[in-house]
Amino acid sequence: MMHDNFTSPDFYEIDDLLSEEHKLIRESTRQWVSKSVCPIIEDYAQKSEFPKHLIKELGEIGAFGPYIPEKYGGAGLDQISYGIMMQEIERGDSGIRSTASVQSSLVMYPLWKFGSEDQKLRFLPKLATGQIMGCFGLTEPDHGSNPGGMITNFKDDGDHIILNGSKMWISNSPFADIAIVWAKDENKRIHGVIVERGMEGFTTPETHNKWSLRASSTGELIFDNVRVPKENILPGKSGLGAPLMCLDSARYGISWGAIGIAMDCYNIALKYSLERVQFGKPIAAKQLQQKKLAEMLTEITKAQLLSWKLGKLKNDDKASSAQISLAKRNNVDMAANIVRESRQILGGMGITGDFSIMRHMMNLESVITYEGTHDIHLLILGNEITGHNAF
Prior knowledge:
Blueprint: H1 20-37, H2 41-47, H3 54-60, H4 79-92, H5 94-114, H6 117-129, E1 134-137, E2 153-157, E3 160-171, E4 178-184, E5 190-196, E6 202-203, E7 218-229, H7 241-275, E8 277-278, E9 281-282, H8 287-315, H9 321-346, H10 357-367, H11 374-386
Parallel strand pairs: 1-4
Antiparallel strand pairs: 2-3, 3-7, 4-5, 6-7, 8-9
């Protein structure tokens, strides 16, 4: 069953489950990735540089907060539409998808869900177009999988607060105009705070020497007695549950993005196996190569159906955190296995920059770690199954 390299595989005719709007969104995103991302991304990854000129284009295709209501600059699309966009963007590169994910799920989402009306109107329309960019500060040097132990804190100072602490492994931070920062008040309660570029004592040093997500901008957030107006505190929700809700939104998008990587690598491996001749015939005619391809297709199909169903649950506001953890864990692991098998099919050619496989492989080492590690999601599921917290 042969298909165009950029649209296959769809072995179970999942297209039949999608609306015409979903298909239009997928096609327009695919065209943009094919035209604007694929031709340049290897060079930017080699340079370890984020292609900032893509920010405006991401805004133009609606990749920033597509499910945010139109009143606030979004497109008012459903969750499956968001997932499809993340899938297609990650076929190009995880770093570009991460930029869109952070802007959508970790910056715009908390502003929409927990922000005041003034905060929503002030920031969301500009974030939707990419006029301003944001980042999300939760992880700290000593508190990654245990975010509740954070030490970043603020003290009351009249109509301001004084913020101190640091965050690390923050996507978009070196160029972000605002940061949604999670910090404890004097009663140890966690709140979201909008910190703006230019506030005295706020710096964002860039992280260098990365082997993964090289075309994504990563850095730290440093707060040294930063005076933040109290009007910049998100009023809608406090406690650790607030940032975890944001992570659920991001993890959902990641589950779709991982499918995009797997699809890209499967298509590359299939095409190469049909063209590469050894011992007088294409290597696709060999049993072991067919085994690899058949298993790849099976796992991709399972992941496609899993994320589609999760999208339906999210549309109906029925998706649980544990269900999202299952999808993120399963699909990223699936993609990592397919990348490795694809690399083997290509042999030595698979390690070169002529193909996207090794870039995807390195990127997945970050994707499998951030927004909850592979093992943390396992424990979330274990807790859901048994009722016993093993953390």
